[in-house]
Structures are given as C-alpha cells and as structure tokens.
# Entry
Amino acid sequence: MLAGDAMFLICTGLAVLAMAAVAIRFRSGNAQAHASGGAAFSSLGGGLSLSGLVALSSLILLPGLIHQHGYDALIPLVGLTGGLLLLTVLVGPALTRSSAATLPDLIALRFGRLARILTLVVALAATGGLLLGTLSAGLSLSARVFEIPIGAAALAAAAAIILVTLPGGLKSVLANSGMIALLVGLALIGLTAGLYAALFGNPIAHLAYGQVLNDIASAELSLIENGLVDFGVFKPFLRKFLTVDRLNWALLTISFAAAVAALPPLVQATGAFAPSASPRRGLAWMLTFVVIALTALPAIAALTRIETYRAVAAGGTFAELPHWIRRASQVDAVRLHGASLGLVETVAHDVTAGAGSIDAVSAAMAGRGARSEANWQRLDPSVQEAVLDLARRFAASPGLPLAERWLPFTDTVVTAAAVAAGNISGKPNLATVSIDPQLILLALPHAAGLPLIVSAFFVAIVFAAAIVLAAALVVSLATMLVHDGSAAVLGRKPDNITELTLIRITGVGVALGAAMTAAVIPLTADVVFTVSLLLAAAGLLPALILTVLVRRATAAGLLAAVIAGLALGTYYLAGTAIYSVSFYEAWPGLSSGGPSAFTEYADARDLWIAAQGDDRAAAYADLAARTSGSLWSPGLANWFGIAPAAAPALALPFALLVGLFVSVVTGQRSQQSLVAFDRLHGRSTNLSNPVET
# Structure
C-alpha cells in the first residue's frame, strides 16, 4: 500500500461516507432533478460544482503530462479551458431556456424523433467510452495504491458510485462535486504554497514559478555539458513542439476543446442552476475556478523537474540520491532504471502470501491490473531475480526503516537494473530517474517529508474526484437510456415516479456493468478517451451548433452533419492508426512525408511483395511501422501532416458544411423547429416569415 499504512484506506473510506451523506442530503424524488440537477444551485455554487467534474483530469493527468512533456503537454490544459468557454457561450443558456434534461432532448425539441435517436446513440457511445476509460484508469491506480485485486477495486468503485448517485442523481453528484472542487483548490494551493515556501522562500507559487523556470533552463544546460543526458528520451521543459509539432499542437487543442464543449454530462449539468441564477454567470464562475486550479499544475510539474535535475547533477552514487527520491521510490512513484523500492515491497507482500517464483509474482502482478503487469514484465529477467531475492529478505525482516532498506536496494536491484540498461558507471543520469505521471501528485507530499495525514488527504480527494466523475457519467448514461430511450422508442416519456425508478435501476446496472467490464477487459485508456472525444467532437458538437446557432437548419441537415462528421473522423482515425498501409496507398499525394521517406517506403514495399512466408509478415510489419505514428504524431500515412487524434479538427468543419448544404437544399423548416429555436434564444416566434434569421 502507498507508504505502507492503512491510513490511506481509512481516509478514502471516510471520504466516501461523507459523499454518501451529502448525496442523501441532496436527494430528490423528481425525475427532472435527478437528470439535470434540479435547478437547485446558485451561480456561484453551480459554477463550483461544475468545476469539480474536471478535478480528476486536473489531479491525475496534467501534472504528470506537463512534467514529462513540458510545453507540449499544455494541450489538454488549454483545450479544457477552451471547451468550457465554448460550453459557457454556446450550450448553457440555451439548455436552461429549453428546460431539456439531456443533450438528445435538446436536439429533439427542434428536429424531432429521428434526430433524437441518432444523437442518443452517439452520446451513449461517447459517454460509455469515457466511463470505461475513467474506471480503467481509476481501478489500476487503486489496485496499486491499496494493494487490492482489481476485481475487489471494481466492486468497491461500483458501490461508491451507487451510494453517490442513487439518492438524487445528478443533483447529488453536483453537490459532492462542489465539495470536491473546494477541497481540490485548498489542497493544490496549500501544497504548492508549502513546497515553494520551503524551497524558494516564496509561498506564492505563481510568482516563484518564473525563478523555477530560469533554474530549469540553467540545470538542463549543465546536464547536457556534463554528459548526463540521454537525448533519446530527454525533452527540455520549455522547448516547444518536440512531442507534437506546431500544426498538431493547434489542431489537438481545438479537437479537445470541441469534445469538452459537447460532453453529455457537462451539457446535462448546465441545467442545475436555479431560475433566479444566471447560467452564463454560473458557467463563468466554473471557468474561473478551473483556471485557478489549472494554473497551479505547471508549477508543481516544474518543481519535480528541477528537483530531479538537482538530484542527478549532484554526481553521487545511487545510494546517495536525496531523501525525497527515496521516499517517492518507496511508494513506487519514482523508478530507478525501471525498479523501485515500492516494487520490492509489493513483491515482499506477494512472497509472504506464498509467491515463491518469478511466475507466481507475475501472476500476482496481473491481478493488480495491466499497468502493474506491464511494469513488471519490462524488467530484465536478472532484475526480476534481484527483486525477488531482496523481497525474500524484506519479508523475513518486516518493519525495517527506510534507511535500512535503501542501501541493499541500491546495491542489488538498482545495480542490476543499471547494468541491464547499459549504465555501468554506478551513478545516476537523467535517464535513470523516471517519475510515474499517475502518482506525481499523490506521492509529492510524502516525498517532501510532510506528515502522513497530508498524503492520506490527497489520496482521499483524488479517489473522491474519480468517483464523482464516474458518477456523473453513470447518471448521464442512465438518464439518456430511460428519458430519451423511452421517448425514442415509445414516442412519449413515462410518468415521474416510473421514470425516476427506471433511472435509478438503470444507474445501478450501468455502474456494476461498467466497473466489471473495466476490471475484466484490459483497456488502453488513451485509445478509449481518443475515440470517445472523437465521437463528441465530430458527432455531437455539429448537432449542437446547428441546433443552437443556425435557425435555417433542418432535420435532414442535422442528420447529414452527424453522419458525415462521424464517417470522416472515424475513417481518418482508423486509417492512420490501424490500417496505415492501406491508407497511405490510397492517399500518397496527401502525405506530409519527404522524398526520402517515400523512397524508403517504396523499397520496403518491393521487399514485402518479393518476400515469402514469415519473411513476408515481417516485411509488412516494417511497412506498418513506417506508415503509422502515434496518436499524437503522424506517420507516413496522413493528410497534410495531421495526427490521428486530431481527426475532429477535420471532421467538425466538414460536418458543418455538409449540414448547412443539406439544410439549404431541403429548405423546409417545420413550425416546431422555428418555435424551439426562438425559445432557445429567449424571443418570440414570427411565423409570418419563417425563414428570417
């Protein structure tokens, strides 16, 4: 367990109980309140609650990404802010005026049943993917932190989600979200102020941040001059466009913003503002709170960078690394050539439970999730043996203090790992120290030597944020399935009591089913998130724009826009990421590759055509490696150098153009559509001139 203490589990359990109490306090017997928050929040309170829905990504993803990739990792930060701004301007006020409960409900007000069905399918797929990705990441993290099987973690997560959602649905979730947002803000501000005051004498991190950036630039230059940098993995903190080029930085940011603006749970939650509150003002408060929190994260990432540089530049041996690295290694947040003291202690726990061989340890790691298993399998067999030998010693002498475990760890495990990595100097270099991006924020208080209760507090709010986000996704799915599903299939909605009962039952089933699916099926979170965000940006945002902004839009235009956006986005993402050879063969003239790359591909293709048997499969694998890149950086298979994950930047304008064209061609707008459009904008309808703007 993280830091080897049950305090983390106790604090997290208390947090869940507190969330259940808040959920009961905000219970509701009304289906509309259960679905959209019940118009129960003021502008300030609703803004705070909505900001809490993005706390998980802020806490878990962004500090690690910024630490790893520096400037290039600002894509989700800027995209998230832009998406929330677009949500504030485009969706929030319109949804409030319409009294719609869900995104498909809003669209159906203008364009009817068929439009509801299509957008419902897309919204369910996007929201379901986000839920599975969130649960997969959360279960993997909880299995590592609490050292419990991933199946037990899944049941615990499902139970917590049900406790939060059952009493009041989205109303209960948003009440808890406001509490989490407040705690997150206090925790981030308090942690950064404490760390910066201790290290730089300035508790205002935003002001001291400039000094840290100057120190980072100087430290990087010194490391390069002293030969302590592996340029294969080294990425200067402030150097732009090393991970992602300039074009894709902009397009990925736009894609992320487009997806955030159309996420069904966020759209649904805009109905939480009281009639006396201004939705736009409330969403502005949300954006303010999010920006305040997000601006603290680069300061935290920069702090871990400069301290890592200082540790390596000191020039000591592995045993002489600073105390914060020892503490972070103890909780598996820092690894030295892929091994950590926390890993040894985890294996010691397995040895105590009866695992006496490498195969048995591998099976135990698999039970903790795909990430733990992958980290273990990456180790060289000689390092695995060294870990197991030291784990046996630790199991025979439990309770040894950190100082008595560190030296044997560096003398045996780290030495073996360094040799396997080609580092025979006996000293750390920049490639030696790797910080787990998922654990940066969780491990930072412990690594800094703060009291254990501070670390436990951070663990509790991180997992509470995960539960809140998953609960919002579950409520959104259950509401759309019942509210929009019944309207789509039956042509009418059930009465209040029946609808509320069905939403609650469906929510329980969705929570259990999603948690078990995430536990059983190994999911790659970044792929799941990419596909889900594509569905939202390419399928749902065009529908929202046509519904809210284009009075001349028709039902046929909306249907065409959604289908066109999804078709182009899916084709580009699948073609460049999965079927890259076929995609390149179909569109060689649009690739951004240079003449040398084209020539090398042609030579490799000739070898593939001439090859036989196993050689042919290997030759095709070489072709695929040449044509496919990563989700964020294109290979040879691309259009104009656009990365696969930036597919929404292509699909969104194409969808809007198709939708506008079909609307002009069909030309007939129903009275229902015109009345609904004017209602969204708070004005009366002039039916004598139905095509006026």
User: Anything to note?
Assistant: Residues 687-693 have pLDDT under 50 and may be disordered. DSSP finds 29 helices and two strands in the chain.
